Amino acid sequence: MQFPLVSRSGRIRKLVAEHRDSDISRVELLNLPGGAETFELAAKFCYGINFEITSSNVAQLCCVSDYLEMTEEFSKDNLGSRAEEYLESIVCKNLEMCVEVLQQCENLLPLADELKIVSRCIDAIASKACAEQIASSFSRLEYSSSGRLHMNRQAKCDGDWWIEDLSVIRIDLYQRVMTAMKCRGVRPESIGASLVNYAQKELTKKSSLWNPSGHTKIDLLSTDHERLVVETIVSLLPVEKLAVPITFLFGLLRSAVMLDCSIACRLDLERRIGSQLDIATLDDLLIPSFRHAGDTLFDVDTVQRILVNFSQQDDSEDDMDDASVFESDSPHSPSQGALFKVSKLVDNYLAEIAPDANLKLAKFMAIAETLPTHARTIHDGLYRAIDIYLKAHQGLPDADKKKLCKLIDFQKLSQEAGAHAAQNERLPLQSIVQVLYFEQLRLRNALCCSYADDDRKPVNHQSWRISSSALSAAMSPKDNYASLRRENRELKLELARMRMRLNDLEKEHVCMKRDMAKSSSRKFMSSFTKKIGGLSLFGHSSSRGSSSPSRQSYRTDSKVIERTCASTD
């Protein structure tokens, strides 16, 4: 009965040869890949019993044929060549079969890796997915009304059907598949969609990982797999922005904090989130704190690091070459709209965490000061958050209150917020005085605007100065520089026009002086004759005790006449 096995298996032939002299009735095969079921299939093959090679057993047959040395050296068309032929001609042509073979290889490592079963299936999956994606892209090409070829973005993309199939692979093999797809040039959006689908299937077993309001405890004995999944998925994230939703990034970060993943993993997520923080929501930022009971309700330190990443991204773009830095429409310049959105998000976050009794003043101020000064165009949100903090921490010393209120630019408060601040007893007296001062300025400017144009001119300069300063504060340094540069050019042009006008006035002045010098004597005699005529006309005035200019002129002219007559005599 042993002859068919001996004739086709080199390993069994050696074992039998080693014990030829002894009467053996049993041969022990240690660490047989695939176990008893796979050996039964190999035995059937040796005894000529027909069975079907499928994608669910081909990996086991390849491994057991290698273990038993069932190669062409011992028998023609042996089990090894039959299994290899099926793997190459059938399995590697079909993506679903490759995924099923990879699943079977999970229990056959490292032998399946040594036989390159895993690598061949991974390469086949990556090639097939890339080809499907290219074909899908071509199917969405269409001609526009002008005759140009363009991509129809509204058409459904059918090239990513493989995403669901890959979600059943073990995480280590899934990582190798994703790496191969990246090398093949699969779109980052497809890679991201696959990562989202895989993470949701592996991690949603712990509902609190994805639910911001969930506080269920995790079984510490079952966290190793989840930690490995999170760290692996973070390492596979595409470098392109928006390849995955920012909500998914926050979910990974919340999971990384809860599962105590590596520092590199968390820092990578914080950096990615910081680069697109302007599309985040308040619920995204509310990351629960999973430390000891005396800590804050929410993880404030993580949010602060995210804000630092956002600000440093802003600064790194500020360090571009001068040719593009100071152009307000430059694509490299930071978006003022993004800064404005993040400032509102931060103010809402501060208002949400302010009632926490364990929140220290230093952490609250650190988050408020993370953004640049020009990020906030209006300080109503910041004032509201500080007011909530003061209300929740009534025992705060006056010095700390003054330090906290220095964060508010009371000139940037709206009329409603200013009216509330003027009557807010929680604010320090110095802050209330500032509010009243700016409210008085605003009221005076509003009243002066109702005056006539002549009365309004000096006030308009002050009003323009205040509004201009507020506008400058609302602009980023680059936009502010570009605006100032344009104003400088306009001022230079105006100065050149004034110089030309001054030259014309000087010429006119010289001509007038020359004409006055020529006609000075004639004018004196003419004016003297007019004065004599005026004496004869107004000599008999009936006014008494009058000290009018005409009476004084009359007296002066009389003295002049007397002196003239005396000199004539």
UniProtKB/TrEMBL annotation:
GO terms for biological process: protein ubiquitination. Residues 314-324 have a biased composition (Acidic residues). Residues 534-553 have a biased composition (Low complexity). The keyword Protease does not apply. Residues 313-334, 534-569 are annotated as: Disordered. Residues 160-442 form the NPH3 domain. Keywords: Coiled coil, Ubl conjugation pathway. It comes from the Eukaryota. Residues 481-515 form a coiled coil. Pathway: Protein modification; protein ubiquitination. The keyword Coiled coil applies. Belongs to the NPH3 family. PANTHER family: OS12G0117600 PROTEIN. This is NPH3 domain-containing protein.
